[in-house]
Each structure stands twice: as structure tokens, then as C-alpha cells.
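Service request form, structural biology core

Requester: graduate student, group of Dr. S.
Request type: structure prediction, single chain
Budget code: on file
Notes: please return the result as C-alpha cells.

Sequence provided:
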Amino acid sequence: MTRPRSSRWISSARSSPFPSPHDGLTSPDWNSGVRMVRGLIILLAGLLSLAGAATAQSRTPPQPGRFDGWASAVIQADWRDGRGQPIQAFDNARRDLVRGFLDAGFSRADMVDYSLQTDSPDAVMTGVREAAARTTRGCLIYFTSHGAPDGMVFGNAPLMTPDVMANMLRNTCGTRPTVVIVSACYSGIFLNALQGPNRMVLTAARRDRSSFGCNADERYPWFDGCILETLPTATDFLALASGARECVSRKEAEAGIDRPSEPQLFVGAEMQMRLPTLRFTRAP
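Core staff response, request fulfilled:
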């Protein structure tokens, strides 16, 4: 004799651990049990999904930063005002520039910073050369100091001339992409000597102009302060240069400077294509 469909359904239901309405429970009891089962199934599915996502994420290798393999150096090459008295502006700039470039994506393991108040010129040159030798992808070299029409103060050593700086970069960074920033009076004198297709060169002033803010009552030299003001929101080095130049122009206009410093910028042909891809990274 063939069983009705309803009998077959009741029979299979009774073999499950959950009661049916035919076991003497009311319809609300049954519906409550069904909802509980559905809730457990949804919860289990969610946990499995999260576990799978975590496993997949753990298997994904970390993505390299855009400045991984870049050597960087921040060099405070003087610590005195124009009368030879110690000031804090250069040291403040060195300290905070290090922090700013680290926040922008540079690696502390590949970065060196020096103060020629305590470090010898030879130690600085050796340290920069060794940092560059550990890396292969690029260089950032930042100098902050006083300048003169024929060179930049480099501690108690003779003035660093454009030829000396050019040789330093040639022997350390070679043909790899290189960004050089020189914050000093008359620093435009370095522009021609440092030019190359793989170079970006930014100077705080024209070759025949002073820059400002290197005295005891300033927190930073003005150009360094403008780099620090612009860096947190700049997307790349081109934006950094543009923002810093605008900042310097604004500060000098507000102070009534009649011979503005006019920071200079050179970007080689290779770097014109490369720099837009070297975007600063920020921690989320």
C-alpha cells in the first residue's frame, strides 16, 4: 500500500533530532526550533567565510613600498647663525625632516641622518656612501646649511662646491633615480652641476639670492619649514616642490622681502616620467 506524501514527510522528520508538530509541540515551538537552526547555519557560514578570508590574507605577501630600496640621507651641515653662534633651527629641521620622510614611505633601515656639529665631514661622506651601497633603486639626499656664492658650509671643512657635491652623488648614487634638495643661501649654484636625466634637483634659492630663517628666533629655516608644511599632504616630489615654492613665496611676501629667494627646480627627462609614479605613502 502506498503511503501518502504527508506520512512519508512525518516519518523522515521524526528521525531528526528536532521535534515536529506531530510530537505534541505547538506550532510556535516548532517555528522557534527552525529559526534556531537557521541562525546556527548562518553563524557557521559567517565564521567559515571569515576564516577563509583570514587564511587568504595571510598567504598574500606584503606589497613593497614605492621607496623600498631607496637610500636616503638628511644632512645638517651647519649649526650656527651668521655670527657663528649656535642655533637650533638646522637641528630642528634635520630631526623633523627625518620623521616627515619616514611618514611619506621611506625606510629607516635605509636612511641616515647627520649633524656636522657632532659628526665629522669624513664620517658623513662615508655613511652616505655605505647607505647607498646597501640599496639599488634610488637616492634621496637632503642638505640644510648656510651657503655662499661659491659653495655650501659643510661643518668645519672647506665649503662644499658644486663639483664636490656632483662627485659625491656620482660615487654614491650613480645612474639610479636621485632626488637632491639643497636648503641654503645661493644654493642655485648647484643646479647646473647636479643636472642629469636621472635627477631631480630642488634648491632653496637662486644662485644670486639668499634664503631666510637661519637665526636664533626661528624654529626652522624658512625653506625647510615649507618642505615640512607641504610634505604631509604632497602626493609626490613634484607636488612637494610646487607646494614648498608657493609657501616660501608667501612667507617672504608677508615679511616684505624685496629680493625673494626664488627656489629653483630641475627635473631630468627620465625623472619627468618616473616621478609621478613615485607617490608618497601614508599609514591608514
